[in-house]
Amino acid sequence: MDTMAPLVLFALVSTISPGGATTLATISGANFGFRPSLPLIAGIAAGLASMAALAGFGLAGLLLALPSLTLAMKASGSAYLLWLAWQTARRGAPRLDGNARPSGFLAGVWMLWHNPKGWAMTTGAAASFVAVASGPVQLGALLAAVFGLLALASLALWCAAGLVLARAMRGDRHWRRLNRLLGLLLALSMVPVWL
Predict the structure, then answer these.
(1) How much is the mean pLDDT over the chain?
(2) Which one is predicted more confidently, 17 or 37?
(3) Distance in angstroms (rounded) separating the CA atoms of residues 141 and 181
(4) Using CA atoms, how far apart are residues 188 and 64, in angstroms rounded to an integer?
(5) How far apart are CA 148 and CA 47, in angstroms?
(6) Close Cβ partners of 20 (under 8 Å, ≥ 6 residues apart)
(7) What are phi and psi of 18, to 5 degrees?
(8) Is pLDDT at 151 greater than 70 in this prediction?
(9) Residue 191 CB neighbours (<10 A)
(10) How confident is the model at residue 1 (pLDDT cuts 50, 70, 90)?
């Protein structure tokens, strides 16, 4: 069990640190509330858990062997997050008239599968903590469980932070400023990916 503590700490720091997924959870919490944001949070956590499982199964070696695949994933993921940032920055106060809906489960999975930070942290974990499991299947299952559960917890915290921000907003002008800031933060989350 002593070997699990560093893995849990690594996954906790990785999942709670600001990035595209945490910013999306904050945006969803601010604009739609906690309960309607749960499918997005679950999708992001499931996406990260599945990435961690694949990294444990050996996909890390494939990504390292095919730099063009890694570049294509970075480019498509960055484009998607920049589009989401633009959509966020253009919003005013939420108008929950029955037509507005938060992103759902599949959008969360889709975003994570195109998130270079997610691939970097899960493949890094697979390489660093290979000794905690007796084989690739066990490592994949362990990484999936640890990253998935900690992602659920950290994204719930970020979503709740968005809800707190929303309660402080007074009028459309404040909402436009908040959404521009959140859109900018989401766009800036791509900078470390390319450096």
Answers:
(1) 82
(2) 37
(3) 37
(4) 25
(5) 8
(6) 81, 111, 115, 117, 186, 189, 190
(7) -60, 145
(8) yes
(9) 9
(10) very low
Tokens matching residue 163: 């809800």
Token pair for 26: 């904050």
Whether 118 has a pLDDT exceeding 90, the answer reads no
3-state helix, strand, coil in the chain (%, to 5): 80, 0, 20
Tokens of 91: 């919003």
Structure tokens at 127: 């390489």
Q: Which two tokens stand for residue 138?
A: 């066990």
The tens digit of pLDDT for each residue in 71-117 reads 776 777 677 778 777 877 887 766 655 566 788 999 999 888 887 77
pLDDT tens-digit series, residues 161-181: 988 988 887 778 887 887 788
Burial 61-74 (b: 16+ CB within 10 A, else e): eebeeeeeebeebb
As given in the structure block, the two tokens for residue 104 are 């759902």
Are the beta carbons of 21 and 118 closer than 8 angstroms?
Answer: yes
Residue in 148, 160, 88 with CA at minimum distance from that of residue 122: 148
d(CA 183, CA 116): 18
User: Rounded CA gap, 150 and 136, in Å?
Assistant: 21
Higher pLDDT, 169 or 47: 47
